[in-house]
Design brief:
The protein has four domains: 123 residues, Methylthiotransferase, N-terminal domain (Rossmann fold, 3-Layer(aba) Sandwich), CATH 3.40.50; 139 residues, Transcription Regulator spoIIAA, CATH 3.30.750.210; 103 residues, Transcription Regulator spoIIAA (2-Layer Sandwich), CATH 3.30.750; 59 residues, Beta Barrel (OB fold (Dihydrolipoamide Acetyltransferase, E2P)), CATH 2.40.50. Helix content is 34%, strand content 22%. It has 15 helices and 18 strands. The chain has a six-stranded parallel β-sheet with strand order 2-1-3-4-5-6, with helices on both faces. Its cofactor is [4Fe-4S] cluster. This is Threonylcarbamoyladenosine tRNA methylthiotransferase MtaB.
Length: 449
């Protein structure tokens, strides 16, 4: 069968879609672009906001229009949280949750054999999502340079605005041996950057019974368990963390990560608000000073340590003073990228029931102001990094501007002019550069001799 796969949402979904592709290929099916005519369409959905739900529904109907006789299977977070709603969509034939993605080949093949006209719903309740679902060792990625490895599933933090614990279930960690085996395979194929990802990666290895199943070096905990193993692998590669949650970690925890030489000096650290009042209402379990303590530890280690973040504007009862405190955190942390989100009421969360919801107009204004401040702060961070030396992983050649591009280890988009350079030889290699001037969404660089 010809199979098209559409992925919405986070890096974990992207990783899981790669696993789904590989499982279909192993069973002698052909993977095609999701916009092409196919016998089967898999929609790997997101439900982080009501907008994500709407996009998922749009893609479900769009796929069926391409081939009305196709089998449409919907999986992922939206399917897990709202299985009846998804099953009621006329185009849908199979609904699976977040813990049955490895079974999709079998489900689709059986559905085709039976020629069923009934929608098959195989979603478990979120309380039943207790075991890590191993989807197999990933051997390829769309990117030729960077590869994701999923190490963890689930979250038990229950931030008041977030539906993800209900979509992903309990905290459960992937076996150390499977993670390292996958890393060795990807490194052997030439991938130069390994990004560790999960629903809440800081919770890796924290569930009861994990240490009994995995041999762990004494003194190691959390994400360090994996970083220590990767540090000892042979090969020319670097490691990046997709994110760490300050709901789990603190300054002391982060300081323990700085000894790993393969770990990039870049961290995505979601702040969500700069107001202690709003952080408490969000159930984030830290204050603004706790967050800034982590920033200070990282910047004391490396003044150019790259920090990216997510931040929400317009959370219920957010005042102008609360909003200004968020802007202040952006200024103090000097992020290299700020992702701004307008609070979206999500049914099934505690925040949806709170009083003092902020108007659409105020959320829009605050969002625009914060984006402008975030962009200015990013430019300031880039400016401060000029004339410093970094290492870039070359990812692509852009013919229109005759530049090679990639990211420095501290996550600055780098542009290198290709005058007299053989770009074919430099693709997927590490090159030493000097940052020379601001350019587009990053910095122009020249190769160091």
């Amino acid at each position: 069968m010809r199979v098209g796969i559409k992925t919405l949402g986070c890096k974990v979904n992207q990783y899981e879609s790669e696993a789904i592709k590989e499982n279909f290929k192993k069973n002698h099916h052909e993977i095609v672009n999701e916009n092409e005519f196919a016998d089967v369409y898999i929609i790997n959905t997101c439900t982080v906001t009501s907008l994500a739900d709407r996009k998922s529904r749009q893609y479900i109907r769009r796929m069926k229009k391409i081939n009305p006789d196709s089998i449409v299977a919907v999986t992922g977070c939206y399917a897990q949280v709202s299985p009846k709603e998804v099953a009621a969509i006329e185009a849908v034939d199979i609904v699976t949750g977040t813990n049955q993605k490895s079974k999709l080949v079998e489900l689709v093949e059986n559905y085709k054999k039976t020629s069923s006209s009934e929608t098959e719903n195989v979603v478990e309740e979120y309380e039943q999502l207790c075991e890590y679902e191993e989807t197999g060792i990933i051997t390829s990625m769309e990117s030729r340079t960077r590869a994701y490895i999923k190490i963890q599933e689930g979250c038990n933090r229950f931030c008041s605005y977030c539906v993800i614990p209900y979509a992903r279930g309990k905290v459960r960690s992937r076996a150390v041996s499977d993670i390292i085996r996958e890393a060795e395979s990807l490194i052997a194929q030439g991938f130069k950057e390994i990004t560790l990802t999960g629903i809440n990666t800081a919770l890796y290895g924290t569930e009861e019974g994990f240490k009994e199943k995995n041999p762990i070096k004494e003194g190691l905990q959390g994400i360090e368990i994996i970083l220590d193993e990767l540090e000892r692998l042979a090969g020319d590669f670097r490691v990046r963390l997709s994110s760490l949650e300050p709901t789990v970690i603190n300054a002391e925890y982060v300081e323990g990560l700085l000894k790993y030489k393969k770990l990039c000096p870049h961290l995505h650290l979601s702040v969500q608000s700069g107001s202690n009042k709003i952080l408490k209402a969000m159930n984030r379990r830290y204050g603004r000073e706790d967050y800034l303590d982590i920033v200070r530890v990282l910047r004391n280690f490396d003044g150019g340590y790259g920090l990216t973040t997510d931040i929400i504007v317009g959370f219920p009862e957010e005042t102008e003073e609360d909003f200004k405190e968020s802007l202040d955190v952006i200024e103090k942390a000097e992020f290299c990228k700020v992702h701004v989100f307008k609070y979206s009421k999500r049914e099934g969360t505690r925040a949806a029931l709170m009083k003092g919801h902020v108007s659409f107009e105020v959320k829009n204004r605050r969002s625009e102001e914060m984006i402008a401040v975030g962009n200015r702060v990013s430019q300031g961070f880039f400016q401060d990094q000029l004339n410093t030396e970094r290492t870039v992983l070359i990812e692509e050649y852009i013919e229109e501007i005759n530049c090679l591009t990639g990211y420095t280890e501290n996550y600055i988009k780098a542009y290198i002019n290709c005058e007299s350079l053989s770009f074919e030889k430099l693709l997927n290699t590490f090159v030493p550069v000097k940052l020379t001037e601001l350019y587009k969404d990053g910095v122009l660089c020249r190769l160091n001799p």
